[in-house]
Amino acid sequence: MASSGSLIAYLMETATVSAMHHLPSSPTHSHALKVDMVDGICPSISINHIRMASAFDPWKEAQLVLPKLLESTKVHMYGMGLGHLPSLLLKNSNTLQALNIHVLNADVFKIQLEHMPHQDWLSDPRVQVRLAHAHDKPTLADTLHICLPDLQLIAPELWRLRDRLHALLNQNFINRAFRIDDPMLQERLKSNEGLLQQDPGVKALFNQHSSRHACVIGSGPSLELSMDLLRQHTSDGSAPSVIAVDTAFAPLLKAGIKVDCVVSIEKKIHQKWLPTAQSEGVKLIYTPMVPNDVLTAWKGQRYASFTQTALLRSSAYFDPASCLFCGGSVIHTATDLALKMGFQDISFWGADFGYPGGKTHSYWPSGELGGNPDRSGHWVMDVHGRQLASSTNFANYLSELEDLIARHPDILFLNASQHGADISGTHSFMEYSI
Length: 434
Fold this sequence. Notes:
Shape: elongated
Strand order of the largest sheet: 14-13-12-11-10-15-18-19
Number of helices: 15
CATH topology of the largest domain: sialyltransferase cstii, chain A
Helix content: 25-40%
Largest sheet: 8 strands, parallel
Oligomer: single chain
């Protein structure tokens, strides 16, 4: 990590900022930033109409955040506004040994330095300043603060980091969907106790497979565009196993593609979205959150699985050996199943994490399973390096899948979608040779 002084000097000399005071920024130039003064008791600035600090009492605003940082020896700040919070932290903490400032946009940082009312804290030996990297992976294991104005102005090439920071900000909200004290979820657990008693755990399938390659099928819009290729790939002499998420089962049935396993974790799934009438001979891997009527209507063999959440650990039938990973999406669980079954090559189909063609899902009417392409306000990069309309949920699922892939460097992962998100750690399926 470079010293703060040398990095700041470098940024001041080399930043390509095009800060045009009171002039509209060019929509075609990603570095054109519109800077306006904001009048008030403590004058502030806005960059592209995003206010960088309060114009009335920025110190009091910073004090609201200060308590959660004061007792830490090391703090990571992603962005710094106009410097009020780091200045207060350095003056008031008796334990701080290192304050790491991660710059989210070099051009914005130059403007911040030009308009920062107090810069003395930057020379504090505890301060280290660095340019954030696209593959940084901040976690809640560290003490961190995310400056929202900086996050809104993050450099486009840092979109993966942007989505990780968004996920950290929303973690408490996400966790509330699986509260152990939720009466509806506890009732769902209780309603499935009889099945958990009789059904084998998914561990019975681990390291049991008849081929080297598994196709993990999502229900993204690109699936219908890849269906002919998938049909060809799964009907030759060395056919791979097919592991489908629940909402991909119906389109695969319609296309005449044999499915080996269906994975369902969704508490809102129903038999319209998961056609149980045609499930004979198909294995169902489920969590106890799936509605009982769907599970009892399944004609094939069922296998119970769990996740390491407090809610599922509270079940009397919880089996840690039958746990599968879930980072919020069933695609994670299906992928982890393929890994634990022992497949060495795993290809993704319909795993788009966005809205290619302005649709939310393949087969199903757009929006029926959730999502709204016209109101997403978010994007990820697709396999061709273009912005793909997405959602913060989809972007978070993408990050979690990329982390799962990174934990298995010995496995060959392939992306069969020519229209979905770029999935780090995968190769193009078109380059694959069985």
